[in-house]
Fold:
Amino acid sequence: MPHIEPKDPSAFLPLTHLSIQVLLALADRDLHGYGIIKEVEQRTDGVIRPATGTLYTALQRLMDDGLIELTGEASPDDARRRAYRLTRLGRRVAAAEVERLAGVVRTAQGKRVVKG
Structure:
């Protein structure tokens, strides 16, 4: 049965911390699991360090939801590594989540929790 893309990306929100980090990692290039782990660790200054099992569970869920897909290309250094890419729906969902989080920041600024 083909995956039907919902019209409203907000149906997927809120995303988990790991899910948005995976979508952001794949926003500008295809990566295999280890590459995703390294990018997330580096971009978050080590605050988010996904364990391999946790990452692959998240990747499977994101694939099941149609937010990412396999590229069909293996890593040049290890044919067993599968590369992932963001789908159009995944990009729309990531954008919706970033807007949602920006709203949280605006609220915090308005309440003077953080400086604007």
